[in-house]
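Hi there, hope your week has been kind to you so far. Thanks so much in advance, here it is:
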Amino acid sequence: MDYAAVFRAFAGPAVLLTPDLVMVDANQAFLDTCGHVREDLVGSSVFDVSLQDPMIPGDRLRASVERVLVTREPDTMGLYRYDLPVPGRRPGRSEEHYWSSVTAPVLGPDGEVLLIISQVKDVTALVRARVALHNGETLSGEETTTAALLAWSRELQKRNENLRRAHEQESEIAVSLQRAMLPDTARERTNVAVRYRPATSALHVCGDWYDFLELGPGWLAVAVGDVVGHGLTAAGIMGQLRSALSTAMHATGQPARALKALANYAVTVEGALATTAVQTVIDETTHTITYSRAGHPPPLLLDADKQGVQVLDQAADPPLGALEPQVARTQSTLSYRPGSTLVLYTDGLIERRDQDIDTGLARLIQNLTRHGHLSCEPLADALLTDIPAHKDGLDDDIALVVVQL
């Protein structure tokens, strides 16, 4: 099937856009309505001066496209007015028209938004019928149905907008709650840098966390975890699990035993299962690191001469809730030389929908080697800065801990 021909023959006005709002094509109905020729549109941005007319409402279209990139679902724009010239009338005279636009994604095989179709519909008849009903004029049965449909669509539009605002507010509260619960270690140790970066999309704010405990002189416990889920619910679960793991580490001093206790506790917390975490204990006296992982990406250890990176993947168990309560979790111990750097992180730092996770891990190792000469604060910034750009923004939260040993 020739889908380009189908698009161009479509009865309603429609324009095909890239995610950055460059016009790829427009069907004949769109060209006839707005008075442009295809050559004027293809390859041009909707914000070009020559195209600034109400048929292409740039700012509202940008907001709609941003929502489509986040949700990967069609988005209905609000009603807007664009008057059309009337054939046979002298130039400058036009007739009142109202329009509604639906913006829909065209997805690639990997789920990425490749193109966007903006379909425009003339709803002038709906508006006129609604006005007539409001003014008390007698309407036909068809006009009454049209007016009721418009009233329903306007109410739906209003509710959708209220829902968007409520979701944005919840996401802001979730991020604030997460930041409030995460410890500030910068004032305590100059050799530790921590970062929490929420997802760009309000729909992907999750329950990533980090923790840093002084278990005794020269004895440090560093943990990172990731709760499955989004918004306030994930943030609340994160707070419970972080506190529970901290308590377990103070009680046991052993990463594997602490994660086993956390897993048993997670069974009692709704939404906590499948959480991943990694717990490490750094002994600055013996120069050793003991660690245990519950389904979490492995920590990285940059050696003292800043040339090699060791992946801490010897102790690897399933996420919380995936083992029977009586099964012991594993841990491993390795030595380090003073001057080495330990990096713990959540999967948002290395995982991308269009890449294998091993590719992201290799990229992080390369970045750590390249920037390893930096002190911990600028090193943490560099590791975040080197995340490859994504047209939709940051896909997932990121929690990051850098410890210079």
User: Anything to note?
Assistant: The first strand starts at residue 14 and ends at 17.
